[in-house]
Amino acid sequence: MPMELETGKPTISPHLDDDSSNRTGTWVSASAHIITAVIGSGVLSLSWAIAQLGWIGGSIALVIFSVITWFTSALLADCCRDPVSGRRCSCYTDAVKSHLGGMNIKFCGIAQYVNLVGITIGYSITSAISMAAIKRSGCFHKNGHAAGCHVQNNMFIIIFGVIEIVLSQIPNFNELSWLSAVAAVMSFAYSCIGLSLSVAKVAGGAHSRTSLTGTTVGVDVTGWQKTWNCLEALGDIAFAYAFSTVLIEIQDTLKSSPPENESMKKATSVGVSVTTMFYISCGVVGYAAFGNNAPGNFLTGFGFYEPYWLIDIANLCIIIHLVGAYQVFCQPIFKQVEDWCLNRWPNNKLMKESRAIKLPLFGDYNFSTFRFVWRTGFVITTTVVAMVLPFFNGILGLLGAASFWPLTVYFPIQMHISRRNIRPFCWKWIWLNVLVAVCLIISVLAAAGSVAVIAKDLQTYKPFTSVS
């Protein structure tokens, strides 16, 4: 029986999972969730990241982060069930509790949920920049490329927040498949547009200055700028592959037959492979098009001006994608808080109260006052913070550095060691922990680079006055 539970086979009925839940997810829906989570705003900064690291360093960094993410995600997929009872783990901290326990639970909870909140803030910033870019591209088309055409970002951040308040009322992850599918299509669309424009620019005879080592000290940047920018670029690439934060939550939507860990590994392989293909294409071709002067965001930094309508379509796709991606990352927060409140106050009428409301085209919807108030408050808070700290590349780098080591590397490897009872100081134990140590050093350095860039931006920044 334990083996049946560990492999995820149903034990109650062919229609229900072994915990009596009616899950409907498949590796296809999981792949859509992963692509929605991964091919996000990170792809937009990759040409800039490669410009800092150069042809050699940038390409190697993309491949290494891809392989590490794929490997540790496969390990994490095997940790979706308690090794003793065989029950499902519904969230990342639940998996850590089942396999490691102790202080690891608090460490994981802080790392995961701080990162999830940070990502939602980052996506609010990015979507607003894309909204502003649509308005600016029309201005450039009308008044010429030399025109300033600067616009305030705050209104666009608020618009994004209002949209997310509405979508945040979707009860749970299981009902997000349609939104993730739309968002995944949008991510392909704007990535392909950016790639096509880069290819067209190179084919048109653009001779941007590139090099094996990226930006040149004394020509493009100072020595210190080169150092900090390279470290920040590593953080940006790490952020571009970040989805381990919600892997267990995505896996919890999968049916138990076929075994959910096998379905998740298949989804992970598809998601990471597709992502890497797009990242290398967009990053490398984008660097070839712009060279060492690559903008931080190659669709809103206006490396491209024409055709302006195509730039607008690409930015509209970014906005739609981030609308869905925001939900993928905030749903675990919603579930954790709501479960905790219900356990803390099980008899509270506000917690338990819900009533059916008929919505045109959507049918019956169970409205909860508590869910509406709490989720609305969360979105408003992230919106306000996004208006206070709108630093695109610095925020991406810091989020990537902060989440990569604990959530993508440390916990999956330590849970694998515990689950497999790997003996200390045997060969496998040594190389796994060497990988943990190396990734820790990379994360610390990347975080330092991002903090240095943000600190520099803060010297000239005034809150609530962000301008694109």
Give the N-to-C terminal Cα separation.
59 Å
In percent terms, what proportion of residues is strand? under 5%
Task: Give the averaged pLDDT, no decimals.
Answer: 80
Q: Which sequence of strands runs across the widest sheet?
A: 1-2
- Using the alpha-carbon principal axes, give the shape: globular
How is the CATH topology named? Amino acid/polyamine transporter I
> Number of folding domains?
1
Helix content: 55-70%
Find the structural class using helix and strand composition: mainly alpha
Q: Which CATH-level-2 architecture?
A: Up-down Bundle
CA-atom Rg in angstroms: 22 Å
Q: CATH superfamily assignment?
A: Amino acid/polyamine transporter I
Largest sheet: 2 strands, antiparallel
Unreliable segments (pLDDT under 50, ≥5 consecutive)? Answer: 1-15
Give the class-level CATH name.
Mainly Alpha
H-E string: HHHHHHHHHHHHEEHHH
The number of strands is: 2
Total DSSP helices: 15
Pfam family, one: Aa_trans
Keywords: Amino-acid transport, Membrane, Transmembrane, Transmembrane helix, Transport
Protein name: Amino acid permease 1, NEUTRAL AMINO ACID TRANSPORTER 2
InterPro entries: AA_transpt_TM
Characterise the protein shown here.
With 468 residues, the protein is mostly helical. It has a single domain, classed as Amino acid/polyamine transporter I. The protein has 15 helices and 2 strands. It has a two-stranded antiparallel ribbon. Helix 5 packs across helix 6. The longest helix has 41 residues. It starts with a helix and ends in a 10-residue tail after the last helix.
